[in-house]
Amino acid sequence: MEGIRRLDENERKIVKELIKNPRISDNQISKNTKVPVMTVNRKRKQLEEERLLHYFTSFDTGEFGTGTFKAKQLYIIKFKTGITRSQFIEKVEKDKRFQAFNASYISLSYLGEKDGRLALIMVLDAETDSSLVDEFSGKIVPHLKENLGEECIAELITTKIINTLRRHHNYLPSINMEKGVMKKDWPDDWIFVDKIVE
User: Fold this and answer.
1) DSSP bridge pairs for 182
2) Distance between CA 95 and CA 92 in Å, rounded?
3) ∠ CA 118-119-120 to the nearest 5 degrees?
4) 182: exposed, middle or buried (C-beta count within 10 Å: 0-12, 13-18, 19+)?
5) Are 83 and 92 within 8 A, CB to CB?
6) Cβ atoms 24, 184 nearer than 8 A
7) How far is C-alpha 170 from the chain's CA centre?
8) 132 CB-contact burial (10 Å; exposed 0-12 / middle 13-18 / buried 19+)
9) Cβ(165)–Cβ(89) under 8 Å?
């Protein structure tokens, strides 16, 4: 299939090691996988340059972490017909006020499609359920209306989130994570990298 970037065997081994421990050194990856360290270094840099590898820290502010944010809610905002992805990115996502707000309350956000229309899917965190509603209704909705028009929202769906089970395909925080990395006894066969089509 054209347009699909397939990982070679060495890249797959390197990525599995990085999934298990994003802080691992190239030398340790080489020891664990038997891939020469220069190959590990070159392939890791290539994967980074191709924007296939992303490193970030997930800091738990919820009830099992610092306890700062006790309320978590999923929102799906379906926009009216005619609002496009490029309009949203230009008018909303690139707005500095929205970016600052994102860092505080929006833990995840995606653009998607619902019933043939653009949809914003996001998870918001807040100190309490009432402050979550205040932040959403008092800041996000007015910001969307200001940038996309007063009648921009066609439908709103909300769901209260009570537990995080899995993150990024591989991370089950209460099952396979310990001290910020994947447990050593977690089987390699259970780590998803990419689907190999024979």
Assistant:
1) 177
2) 5
3) 135
4) buried
5) no
6) no
7) 12
8) buried
9) no
Nearest-angstrom CA–CA distance, 63 and 67: 4
Helices in 37-116 by DSSP H: which ranges? 37-49, 85-88, 96-105
What angle separates helix 141-148 from helix 96-105, to the nearest 10 degrees?
Answer: 160
Q: Which residues contact 19 (CB under 8 A, 6 or more apart)?
A: 170, 182, 191, 193
Write out pLDDT tens, residues 8-64: 999 999 999 999 999 999 999 999 999 999 999 999 999 999 999 988 887 788 777
Contacts of 190 (CB under 8 A, 6+ apart): 170
Percent over 90 (pLDDT), the chain: 60
Query: Are 24 and 18 within 8 A, CB to CB?
Result: yes
Q: Which two tokens stand for residue 114?
A: 């619902």
Q: Which tokens hold the place of 75?
A: 């929102």
Q: DSSP 3-state assignment of 86?
A: helix
pTM: 0.80
Distance between CA 187 and CA 176 in Å, rounded? Answer: 10
* Domains of the chain, each with CATH number or no CATH: 9-58+173-190 (1.10.10), 71-160 (3.30.70.100)
pLDDT at 1: 43
SS3 assignment for 156-190 = EEEEECCCCCCECCCECCCCCEECCEECCCCCHHH
Report which of 6, 112, 2 is spatially closest to residue 50, judged by C-alpha positions.
6
